[in-house]
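Regression check, KG4 case 359:
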Amino acid sequence: MKILGIETSCDETAAAIVEDGHRLLSNVVNSQIDIHALYGGVVPEVAARSHIEVIHPVIHQALTEAHLTWNDIDAIAVTYAPGLIGSLLVGTLAARTLATLKHKPLYPIHHVEAHVYANFITEQSKGINLTLPSKQPTFPMLALIVSGGHSQLVLFKDHGDYVLLGQTQDDAVGEAFDKVAKILGLPYPGGPSIAKVALAGDPYAYVLPKAKMTGAYDFSFSGLKTAVLRAVQREVGVDTSFPSRKLAARLNDTQKANFAASFQRIAIETLVDKAEAAFKDHTPASVVIAGGVAANQELRCQLTDRIPVAIEYAPISLCTDNAAMIAALGYFYAQKNQPISPNELEVNPSLSMTKTAWA
Ligand code: KG4
Ligand code: ZN
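Current build output:
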């Protein structure tokens, strides 16, 4: 079954074709990073307009790169939740129109759930050269989902059958990376910038706190971000009334690297502490990480050190937003669910993973 996936929930316009939930036939991602970097973050209205401009060329490219025509496509899977409303509307409208015109079954996909399915892509056609996991994860599967909007630990008993063990009570970890990068004057998106600069820094240079939570698997990152802000203010000798956007100009490269490394160490340790606790309590057969922050090498190293089960990581390009993960989940979703009528598909910008449309 060849599924065309469409993803436009935030600032990436993406289309991909995946066969039987595991074989990647094409993967096209048109990133808007350059546009939003001018503003230091995603501007929702600009994102939606940019999706409109490129959605059809991106879908066309996904078919061309897979050497397929519409006749070869068995179904369309599209992100309908969660995300920016304007962005979601562009992708779902394109999917609804194409499903109607080309007479294809249409499946609504939850973006955060789909991030996990990057780990189910284990084969690729000639011409795509990704380093993929050697086999699909087995159930029960513990998933650490860490992106710009989510930080959560989810225990999957099967496809579409999962419990949310814990989640962030305030900022998502990716959001914390992005905010700390702003304080340090590092370019958007903040996660990769911090990871890069941290390589030259001392992760023990500054003492930063780890949040203590009542929920055994819950996270909090807003206090850590504020602790970085206060430590930077102390370092440059100003009080809390000093404008935070002017702090970075007073830090030298060594100080920036040390702050990046110290923040990254604590943020990642926080994630791994909770993942390790969940692993001990639930003894899953496999562990996966998902979402943009899963691209972080420090996270991969710490997890491999502390979790006593072999973890195969998805390639970085399938961790950040893409449509291959949408098409992969689309396959498993289609095994258990009826397609939705194109006229009935509505976007749901704030739907959490506890309430999905799985049967
Ligand atoms: O999953 P994603 O592409 O979009 C959302 O659904 O949110 O995640 C984007 C987030 C951003 O906060 C970005 O800074 C972070 O992932 N990120 C990273 C790295 N690469 C991307 N964070 C830490 N280290 C990285 N290497
Ligand atoms: Zn995402």
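Comparison notes: The chain has a mean pLDDT of 96. The longest strand covers residues 23-31. No diff flagged against the previous build.
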